[in-house]
Amino acid sequence: MLPRVLDTKVKNILSWERSLAKAVASSILEFKPPSVWEIMIPILFLFNFFQYKRARETFSLNFLFTKKMALEAAFGIIDKGKAKEQAKAEIKEKTDKILAADAKGIYSSKIRQKQMKEIDLLMEHYGRLLEADGKDFASMVKKSYRTRENYCGFLAQLSEAEKEVNRAAAQTVRTHSAAEIVSKMEAAVQAFRKAEVERIFRLDG
Known about the structure:
81% of the residues lie in helices and 0% in strands. With 205 residues, it is an all-alpha fold. The longest helix has 26 residues, at 148-173.
């Protein structure tokens, strides 16, 4: 059975978000060149390599947390005719359970509150992409936003929402390295999105 156009769109949007997550992970989790001991004892190199790979994959999953929920909600609204408020209520229920299960207090209600604002913005964005003509990410963006200025306007809103989440997370974690990590994350996100905007709209001059 051939995949539907809508399914292909979801796959391509998620692929773009995964590329962003991997780029951000790579900017934070630096892979150090192998030491003399790792060269002499290959198993040490493999151990460190797989530790790095696992850390990068874990970070990517965490980074995609809000994106995937928002995309699934937008898909449900368009594909199943689900009401937006119902989709948001389902996300709230999921995050309520995570909040209740967090005995260590890492996932705070303040983080969840900021994430819901980000998710709301992403749901609208993904909905626009899924309803636009075209299957690949660049085509969906150009059909949805028409101009570079419109798309950059959305990205500015999204960036601010993400920063609010990051600030809430840094305040909850309260470690000396939190601010540095957040700064690196935000710089990597900005660089990736700036390059993507140039790629998507380069034919428009």
